[in-house]
Amino acid sequence: MPDPVQLSRIAAVMLGVRDMDAALEFYQNKLGLKALLKEPALALLQCGPVMIGLSRGHVTMASHVAGASEVVFGVDNVRAAQKALSERGVVFMGEPKQVTPTDWAVHFKDVDGHLLSLFGPEGKV
């Protein structure tokens, strides 16, 4: 008999936010994600097969807004994506670094301090 609890994919990553308008401005206008749902306390944004959830309620459930977690966005060209996001006002924490034999990563934070990164081949600008 198959295991009834088969975790096969990540459906969504939920992030606690203090200011929904500021969070939406960052994720929509700077990162270019499309909103699927917008309510005063909850927004869902599409990021490929995974949704990013922005939730005011998660702030009250946690002892802090941003913890020891990271949302990693896969890209085809880390350097080109970093350049494009920098032009939209995203501030990066440093330069891309090689993290596997074939992939690179570069980190940045959202308006609530959540750690985010770009991950993929280094590419060229």
TL;DR?
The chain is of the alpha/beta class and 125 residues long. 21% of the residues lie in helices and 33% in strands.
The whole-number mean of residue pLDDT values reads: 89
Largest sheet: spatial strand order: 1-4-3-2
- β-sheet strand percentage: 25-35%
Radius of gyration: 16 Å
From the helix content, strand content and strand pairing, which structural class follows? alpha/beta
User: Would you count the extended β strands for me?
Assistant: 8
Quick one: overall form? globular
Into which percent range does the helicity of residues fall? 10-25%
The major beta sheet can be summarized as: 4 strands, mixed
Distance between the termini: 51 Å
Uncertain parts: none
* Succession of helices and strands: EHEEEHEHEEE
Q: How many helix segments?
A: 3
Report on the structure:
By secondary structure, the chain is of the alpha/beta class. The protein contains three helices and eight strands. It has helices at residues 20-30, 57-61, 78-87, and strands spanning 12-16, 34-38, 42-47, 50-55, 70-74, 97-98, 104-109, 115-120. Strands 1-4-3-2 form a four-stranded mixed sheet. The chain has a four-stranded mixed sheet with strand order 5-8-7-6. It is globular and about 40 Å long. The N and C termini lie far apart (51 Å). The model has no long low-confidence stretch (mean pLDDT 89).
Q: Could you name the key traits of this structure?
A:
four-stranded mixed β-sheet; single chain; alpha/beta; 125 residues
Layout of secondary structure:
Blueprint: E1 12-16, H1 20-30, E2 34-38, E3 42-47, E4 50-55, H2 57-61, E5 70-74, H3 78-87, E6 97-98, E7 104-109, E8 115-120
Parallel strand pairs: 1-4, 5-8
Antiparallel strand pairs: 2-3, 3-4, 6-7, 7-8
